[in-house]
Amino acid sequence: MAADNFDLGSSLSASQQPASPLSGGQPQASAEPSAELASEGEFEPQIDATKAAALFEQLVQRQNLPLGIAAGLAASIVGAVAWAVVTNVTGYQIGWMAIGIGCLVGFAIRTTGRGLTRSFGIAGGVLSLAGCLLGNVLAICGLLAAQEGWPVVTTTLSVLTNPTTVMTLIADTFHPMDALFYAIAVYEGFKFSFRQVSPEELQTMIS
Fold first, then answer.
1. In this structure, what DSSP letter does residue 197 have?
2. pLDDT for residue 23 is more than 60
3. Are 178 and 28 in contact (CB under 8 A)?
């Protein structure tokens, strides 16, 4: 008979299979969280343009360009003197000193000027280049004084008070590789001259 060939195991297995939604049964819950549940609780902060503009205006009013330039000038002179000392002590002109001058000038302007406008970056780049050129001239003056047996201070003052001599020394000692280091110094001086917005200030811009 047909009933004798009935497979109980197959019947039980079939009865344990989840019902298909297409057949009118209830769908089985998925083990994977839905995209909607996965994204639940996530918050993406949105910056309010009005608040950002108001904060920018407040920060611009607090910046101090003259003080930043004064600090940058002092930093460029300190960096130039350090360059000359290292060159005269080692007997080698180290191009990486130019990059150090750029960073030093930039951080000096950022710390004191606390500026956000482009004028701070321009001041940082110009003063960085000036510091590099001054360091090169001071190094030459030191080497020349040591070679000729002249007083260092007298030799340096004699050169610096004569613009024609200064330009001649820069032109005669220029090497194409110097342009690369000077360019990097200008870039560093420009980049580091701008103040950073603190997390607390950023928080005031979030809507």
1. P
2. no
3. no
pLDDT, tens digit (0-9, with 9 covering 90-100), for 174-196: 889 999 999 999 999 999 999 98
The model carries a pTM of 0.74
User: Which helix (DSSP H) or strand (DSSP E) does residue 137 occupy?
Assistant: helix 118-148
Question: Are residues 79 and 101 in contact, defined by beta-carbon separation less than 8 angstroms?
Answer: yes
Residue 134 in contact with residue 81, Cβ under 8 Å? no
What pLDDT, in 10s, does the model give residues 93-107?
A: 788 899 999 999 999
Average pLDDT score, the chain: 83
Q: Does residue 108 contact residue 64 with C-beta atoms inside 8 Å?
A: no
Q: What are phi and psi of 194, to 5 degrees?
A: -95, 140
Partnered with residue 194 across adjacent β-strands are 115
- Predicted confidence (pLDDT) at residue 138 exceeds the cutoff of 60: yes
Tokens coding 10? 């197959």
Token pair recorded at residue 185: 């110094």
Contact 99, 152 (CB under 8 A): no
Q: Which two tokens stand for residue 34?
A: 């839905």
Burial (0-12, 13-18, 19+ Cβ within 10 Å), 160 = middle
**Residue 20 phi, psi (nearest 5):** -80, 140
Length of the chain: 207
Q: What is the rounded (10 degree) CA torsion for 90, 91, 95, 97?
A: 40
Contacts of 180 (CB under 8 A, 6+ apart): 95
pLDDT (mean) for 67-84: 97
